[in-house]
Design goal:
Elements: E1 5-10, E2 16-20, E3 23-29, E4 37-39, E5 52-58, E6 63-64, E7 74-76, E8 82-85, E9 88-90, H1 94-109, E10 112-116, E11 126-138, E12 143-154, E13 160-171, H2 178-203
């Protein structure tokens, strides 16, 4: 965290100071030896959907473009340019984190007969197939954006019974440091997760 600066990094190695609306962005080379702060996501979700205790669901790892498929925290500098938050990383690759947090959120409701990941041997009724479309800090709007597309697949006949795109934005509060950025992403993800869980319980 560098005061009110948003620190980003990209390859190839070069340094460039760019002034952006509301935030100063320092672009640095990727490959430095500094240790990164590691961040996780919150799973506290309250779902209002009905119980489906006679249903078991499978949550595969979400798909995502390669830019979102790593443990780096994406920052959108413009509509066509992305960077990554310097000295910060997720505790795992983002798709695996989202998968794990969705499983936890479904389990924590206590409203399903079972929730699992591929390979755990559950007799599955439905698969929750998802694609991460956005999981980023937007510097121009000074906000976090999360967007996830979800399909509910009948595991017995391969039919998609419902599909929907979930999105949420959360403002970056306080100083523009790494912790503030992650908190905004966490808040947006919590909103999306709660909506996914509630919608799924109503659909199955």
């Amino acid at each position: 965290m560098v005061g009110s600066q948003l620190v980003l990094r990209r390859c190839p190695k070069r340094s460039l100071l760019v002034m952006l609306p509301l935030v100063a962005a320092l672009l640095t080379g990727c490959g430095g030896g500094a240790k990164n702060d590691t961040f996780d996501l919150n799973t506290a979700v309250s779902a209002d959907g009905p119980a489906a205790r006679n249903r078991q669901i499978l949550v595969p790892e979400p798909t995502a473009l390669s830019a979102l498929g790593s443990d780096q925290v994406m920052v959108r500098v413009s509509t066509s340019e992305i960077q990554y938050l310097s000295k910060a990383q997720w505790s795992d690759k983002l798709p695996r984190m989202v998968q794990a947090k969705l499983v936890e959120a479904f389990e924590d409701t206590g409203k399903l007969g079972g929730v699992g990941k591929p390979g755990q041997g559950l007799a599955i009724d439905y698969q929750i197939v998802s694609d991460i479309r956005a999981f980023e800090i937007n510097t121009a709007g000074r906000r976090a954006n999360v967007e996830i597309s979800v399909k509910i697949l009948n595991d017995r006949n391969g039919t998609v019974i419902a599909q929907k795109i979930f999105s949420a934005a959360s403002p970056v509060a306080g100083s523009a440091g790494n912790t503030a950025f992650i908190r905004a992403l966490d808040a947006a993800f919590a909103t999306v997760t709660a909506e996914i869980v509630d919608w799924t319980l109503r659909a199955i």
